[in-house]
Specification:
Layout lengths: L8 E6 L2 E3 L2 E3 L2 E6 L2 E5 L8 H9 L9 E3 L19 E2 L3 E4 L2 E4 L6 E3 L2 E5 L8 E6 L4 E4 L18 H12 L4 E3 L15
């Protein structure tokens, strides 16, 4: 696998949660090598919860160069249109405007410090975004909803596959930016 540089800046724009019936996905911003990447622009209580922190970081939606979706559930995709027509990366393709380019996500290097991994687990179409920063190798992923898991994801079709992908990510990352809770550092008690 290609070496991951450590030059990116990672900011969490929205920390996700599940407090039924309210659900919000974690929305992240990654900057590296001239690219401005939004990961999982999904459900939030108000779109300004995404746009305000972006503005506070000195960026406009037009500055975004790429969008990555971890999978195709609406709580991670519903706000893609906040951003201009840019490449949208998923597990099998890059979509830009009306152009669909098929390519597998596993190992795709967006920049020297941003790499996509195919990590089927929560859904068969899951993608984890690895980000090398000066201090961390962060995994932006839905393999964990929160630090507690759940150990048995109710949407996972294959528990063994989920476990295998969690181990793969834990071998690479020092920080997990999970789908519906605060980021956490893996420990022996992290659900496998």
């Amino acid at each position: 696998m290609l070496e991951l540089s450590r030059t990116a800046r990672l900011d969490v724009l929205v920390e996700g949660y599940v407090r039924m019936p309210h659900v919000a996905g974690t929305v992240s911003l990654v900057r590296d090598a001239g690219r401005v990447v939004v990961v999982d622009p999904g459900m939030v209580a108000d779109r300004d919860l995404i746009l305000r922190p972006l503005r506070e970081l000195g960026l406009r939606p037009q500055d975004v160069t790429d969008v990555v979706v971890s999978h195709h559930h609406l709580d991670h995709t519903v706000n893609i249109a906040l951003f201009p027509v840019v490449p949208v990366h998923d597990f099998q393709s890059v979509i830009e405007a009306d152009t669909f380019t098929r390519r597998a996500a596993d190992g795709v290097q967006l920049t020297p410090s941003i790499r996509l991994l195919a990590t089927p687990g929560h859904s068969p179409q899951d993608v984890t975004t690895l980000v090398g920063t000066a201090d961390e190798v962060a995994a932006l992923t839905h393999l964990w909803w929160t630090e507690e898991g759940p150990a048995d994801d109710p949407y996972a079709l294959d528990r063994d596959q989920l476990r295998e992908q969690r181990e793969r990510v834990l071998d690479l990352a020092t920080l997990i930016v999970c789908a519906h809770g605060p980021a956490f550092r893996p420990s022996p008690s992290t659900p496998r």
